[in-house]
Amino acid sequence: MLLQNRIMLGLILIAMMSALYLIFIMVPTDVNLGVSQRIFYIHVPLAVLSLIPPIIVFITSTLYLVRRSPQWDALAHSSVEVGLLFTTLALVTGSIWARPTWGVWWTWDPVLTTFLILWLVYLGYLLIRSYTVEPDKRARFSAIVGILGSINALAVYLASELWRTIHPDKVIGPAAEENALDPAIQLGILVSFIAILLLFAYTIIFRTRLHSAVNQIGSLRDQIDDLVYRISNK
Amino acid sequence: MSDESHIEPTTMQNSEPQSTAKTRLIIALTVLGIALSYFLFTAFQSAQVYYYTVGEVVTNKPHAELVRVNGNLVADSFTRISGETEARFELTDGSTKLLMIYDGIIPDLFFNPHSEIVAEGQYYEEGTFHVDDILVKCPSKYTGEVTEST
Prior knowledge:
The complex is a heterodimer. Chain A has one domain. In chain A, 78% of the residues lie in helices and 0% in strands. Chain A is elongated. The N and C termini of chain A lie far apart (42 Å). Chain B is α+β, with helices and mostly antiparallel strands. Chain B folds into 2 domains: 44 residues; 87 residues, CATH 2.40.50.140. Chain B is elongated, with a radius of gyration of 28 Å. At the A-B interface, α5, α6, α7 and α8 of A face α1, β7 and α3 of B.
C-alpha cells in the first residue's frame, strides 16, 4: 500500500510539473485576455472536477441506503470533502480571473449562483455529519442529504444552456463548441486536467481509506467496551 | 446481573445525546433548506433578468428598476470630455442602439472588439441608460498571440 501511494504521488508530481511548464512557458498568451487567461488551466479542471463528486455521492448514497455497508458511506463522505475543497478553489480562482476580465470579483450570474449553491450543499452535508453522533444514523441522514444535494450539480451544468450568462461557454466536455481552442492551449489544458484529476482521485482514495480505518477503530472499540463490561459484571 | 440486562445501560446512555442530536439535525436541515431555497430563488430571479438585450430594454422601458443590458460597443461612440470622469457611449444588439452614461472605471477589455458589454443601471424615459457598473463578457475561444499574427 505504501509503494502504491508513492507511485501515485510520483505520478502526480510529474504531471503537475509538466502542467506548470506548459502553463508558464509553452502555451501562448491569449490574444484578447492576455496573461490572466493562464489561470484558465487551473480554474477549468477544478470547476469541471467539482461536478464529479455529486455523481459519486448520488451513486454511493443510494448504494448505502440499499446495502447499509459503511464503505459506501465512507466513499460518499470523502467525495464531499474533496468536492468542498475543489469548489472552494474553483470559486477563488474564478473570482481572481473575473476581476481583470469582467471587471468584478463576483456577480449574481446563473452559473456562478448555482455553483455557489453546490458549495453550500457540500458545506451543509458536512455540517449534518458533524451534528449527528450515532454512526448509522449519521450515514443514513448524510445519504439522504447527499442524494438530494447532488441533483443541484445538474443545474450548474445546464445553467449556461438554460439561461443568459456572463460566464464563458464550455470549452471541454460533451457540450463544448468545436475548435474553441488552439492546439497548444489544448495540450496545456489536457495535461493540467490529468494532473488535477490524479490529485482528485488520490485525495478521495486516501480520505476513504482514512474514514474506513476510523470506522473500523470505532467498531473495535465498541467490541472492547462490550467485552470489558461483560467481564466486570461476571 | 444477567447477560441480557447489560444492553439497557448503553441504550440509556445513548438516549440523551440522541435527542439533542436530533434537534441539532433539525436546526441544521432547516437552515440548509432556507439557505438553499433563498439562493435558488435568487438564481431563478437573476436568471430571468441577468441581462436584457438593448432591443428589450428600449421596447419594455423598465422604469425605476435596476437592470442589466447586454450589447456590443458601437465603434467610435465613446466620448469623454477631457478632465471629466463622465463617459458616454452607445451599445447595440445589431439593430437598436442605446446611449449609456457612465461615471467610473472602464475595465481593461472594454474596447476589445471581441468583448460584449454588460451594463448594470437604470433606464431613463428620455432614452438614456444610467450605468452603475460595467462588466465585460469575454469570448470563450482562446487563441495565442503568436498564431494570430502569423
